[in-house]
Each structure stands twice: as structure tokens, then as C-alpha cells.
Amino acid sequence: MIILGTISVGLAVFLMGIDEHKALALGPGGPLMEDFWENMRRYGLYALTVSTGVLYSVFQPIVELLRNPISAILVLTIIGGSIFIVSQVVSAMIGLSDFSYDYSY
């Protein structure tokens, strides 16, 4: 087992030495840092494109419904009612309303 382990470790070290392009972090300007900032830029761009795509997919059907006057009234009523309900729930959650629970036991 020891001989087999030694041979496998030696083979791994040999295969690592064959690679000409080693990734060495040579301080703040090293190749790994350049790749890091390039990946960070790509992830930010990815997050921006995904979020704008989701917003477009959500609002496109609503814009289509707003072109018809009857459905526009319904959509605006639903949006207004939703905003009102959410504002009432949030104000009750943070204690801005005067509503109190009277438990009668």
C-alpha cells in the first residue's frame, strides 16, 4: 500500500510539473487577480441581464393588457388594491396603525 501510494503521489507531482502555464498569484497584479476581476465583471453583467430580462418578462403582458381600456381599468384596480393591502399590512406589522387585539377569555 505504501509503494502504491508513493507511486500515485509521484505520478501526480510529475503531471503537475508538465503544465507550462502555472497559475501563480503574484500579488495584486498577478494573473489570478486579473481573472478574478474579469469574473466579477462578468457576474455583474450576468446579474444585470437576468434581472432586466425578468422585469421585461413580467411587465410585457401587463403593458399588453393596458392597451385595451376595459382590461386597463381592471389591471389598474388590481395594482392599486395590491399597493393598498401591502401598505396596510406593513403599517400593521411595524406598529403604525392603532389597531389592537382584544382577546376576551
Keywords:
mainly alpha, membrane, plastid, Uncharacterised_Ycf33
Model description:
One of its GO terms (cellular component) is plastid. Belongs to the ycf33 family. It holds the Pfam family DUF751. Helices cover 75% and strands 0% of the residues. The N and C termini lie far apart (76 Å). The model has no long low-confidence stretch (mean pLDDT 81). It has a domain of 38 residues. The chain has 105 residues and is an all-alpha fold. The radius of gyration is 30 Å and the shape is elongated. The relative contact order is 0.04. It is built from 3 helices and no strands.
What is this entry, summarized?
With 105 residues, this protein is an all-alpha fold. The protein is built from three helices and no strands.
Mean pLDDT rating: 81
Helix content: over 70%
Task: Name the overall outline.
Answer: elongated
Q: How far do the termini sit from each other?
A: 76 Å
Largest beta-sheet details? none
Low-confidence stretches: none
Q: What is the ordering of alpha helices and beta strands?
A: HHH
Number of strands: 0
What radius of gyration results from the CA coordinates? 30 Å
The number of distinct helices, counting runs of at least 4 residues, comes to: 3
How would you summarize the topology of this molecule?
Blueprint: H1 2-18, H2 31-66, H3 69-94
Family: Belongs to the ycf33 family.
Transmembrane segments: 41-59, 71-96
InterPro entries: Uncharacterised_Ycf33
